[in-house]
Write a structure and sequence with these properties.
Largest sheet: 8 strands, antiparallel
Strand content: 15-25%
Radius of gyration: 28 Å
Shape: globular
Helix content: 25-40%
């Protein structure tokens, strides 16, 4: 915590220095003496008074991210005060990332004069827009953030095209690690250019409202994202937490055992099923339309027998069996125990997705005795915790067969068990990679997965909109009531003004 506050303080002092360098001559034109300009915070309050901005806005200055918004807002107002309010001026300001004000401050400050009196803050439409952006950014960064579901790894619970809200405070707010980034972007612009500067804060998390529990659905940053080194800019993943720190996980015949206990049955879990029909092919269109099944793969036809692999819940498998009379068999597709998946974690023990473990999930404070069998399990973990491994057991230039774990780790799996790239393939999720808890589906669209931008084929899943993640509660009617009340209130205020 102390390190985070120290870094934030240094950053705010740097901002103050930039602000003074870029505006001191403009302050002088406003009749403000230089010694007042160099006083931190007080110089901002002076601009508040001139622009008649409420003093409570000052709290934005103490958050490294929103302080940037606040300075941009104040700089734009300064430009307007000196007549630099044309579209060209605003464009130059934004195009130069704010450096245009330095040009005005040092090149034009001798000739320009205050253009006009400043309107009250509440009458300034532009200021209202900036305020709305700041509040939205605060909410997005510190409270709740929208995400979309792009893949089928959580099908059974979350569908492709679900738009969810994720609480960042449930598991403890992770304070932003990269303060210099383009607002409302994650890690890239148009999928090509990084939207952030890799200048980073130390990791710090506020106390949680609740701890992660087994079977919670969790959003986290993908630990093995090699394109983005900064934790909070790594790709976002969503999976179900099946193993907590200190747990032992074991998978046999596709069944997960945690601490030697079979995991609780879940209606949402999907597995791959082999289905063989006779004489007539399976009616795939009917299954997709009526059972909301997407992953159907035709394997082969042989002697008028048709073989398919479909991702299904146990309930849907029973429904299909009862719907069609020509089904020869329908059974789970389980990889044989002797089959080795090359991509499975940790790549040297001969496991596969259906026969995995036993594996101990690391817990903070645990001592691990390293040997030839488990060094591949913990090698990346030891490196990620800031250590240097020269050889198998040489940690930080010293031979050491024991290592003390510094963080808590979690084991994540998708509900679409046989079509999920999860901890079985890439290992553990460190506690500092946890983003938050999904709480709400606010919109859901069924689109063509091969061409999702074909808007004409979009179908809204009304039964999923404004529902909780588990689908038990729907608030769609409350949403429409709120929307109607808001529009009515807005029109009333507009007509009375």
């Amino acid at each position: 915590m102390f390190q985070y506050i120290l870094f934030s303080g240094i950053f705010l002092l740097f901002e103050h220095f930039i602000h003074v360098l870029g505006t001191w001559r403009l302050y002088k034109k406003l009749g403000i003496t230089y010694h007042k300009v160099i006083i931190p915070i007080y110089n901002i309050i002076l601009l508040f008074k001139i622009n008649r901005i409420p003093v409570w806005f000052l709290f934005l200055l103490f958050f490294p991210l929103t302080s940037i918004f606040l300075l941009v807002f104040l700089w734009i107002n300064l430009l307007k005060m000196f007549g630099k309010n044309r579209r060209r001026d605003i464009f130059l300001f934004l195009f130069t990332f704010g450096w245009y004000i330095f040009y005005i401050n040092y090149s034009y400050s001798k000739n320009i004069v205050v253009a006009s009196k400043i309107k009250k803050f509440k009458e300034d439409t532009g200021s209202s827009i900036v305020l709305a952006m700041i509040l939205s950014f605060l909410t997005h960064t510190y409270i709740v953030q929208p995400f979309s579901i792009p893949t089928s790894s959580m099908e059974g619970t979350l569908l492709v095209g679900d738009f969810i809200l994720v609480s960042k405070i449930h598991y403890g707010l992770r304070m932003p690690i990269t303060p210099l980034s383009i607002p409302f972007t994650h890690n890239t612009i148009l999928g090509k250019w990084k939207s952030y500067i890799s200048f980073q804060w130390p990791y710090f998390r506020l106390p949680p409202i609740k701890n992660i529990r087994r079977n919670d659905i969790v959003v986290f940053n993908f630990p093995k994202d090699v394109k983005h080194k900064v934790i909070d800019r790594k790709e976002n993943y969503i999976k179900r937490c099946v193993g907590l720190p200190g747990d032992s996980i074991f998978i046999k015949n596709g069944i997960v055992f945690i601490n030697h206990q079979k995991e609780k049955s879940s209606k949402e879990k999907q597995h791959g099923y082999l289905i063989k029909t006779k004489n007539i092919p399976l009616n795939i269109e009917f299954i997709k339309d009526h059972l909301d099944v997407e992953d159907v793969e035709f394997i082969e036809e042989n002697n008028d027998e048709y073989l398919y692999q479909i991702m299904l819940t146990e309930k849907k498998a029973i429904q299909i069996k009862n719907l069609f009379d020509n089904i020869i068999f329908i059974k789970k597709y389980i990889l044989p125990i002797h089959f080795k998946e090359e991509s499975i974690f940790p790549n040297n023990l001969g496991w596969n997705r259906d026969f995995f473990g036993p594996l101990l999930i690391p817990k903070k404070g645990d001592f691990i005795k390293l040997n030839s069998k488990n060094i591949n399990i913990y090698y990346d973990l030891i490196v990620d915790e800031g250590n240097n491994i020269e050889k198998k057991y040489f940690i930080n230039h010293k031979r050491n067969n024991y290592y003390r774990i510094k963080k808590n780790y979690y084991f994540m799996m998708g509900d679409n068990r046989d079509n999920s790239y999860d901890s079985r393939y890439w290992g553990f999720v460190p506690e500092d990679h946890i983003v938050g808890k999904p709480i709400f589906i606010w919109m859901s669209i069924d689109w063509n997965r091969e061409n999702p931008l074909n808007f004409f084929n979009w179908k809204f899943r009304w039964n999923r909109m404004m529902t909780t993640i588990n689908g038990k509660n729907s608030y769609l009617s409350f949403f429409f009531a709120f929307l109607f009340s808001y529009i009515l209130f807005y029109k009333t205020i507009k007509n009375s003004s």
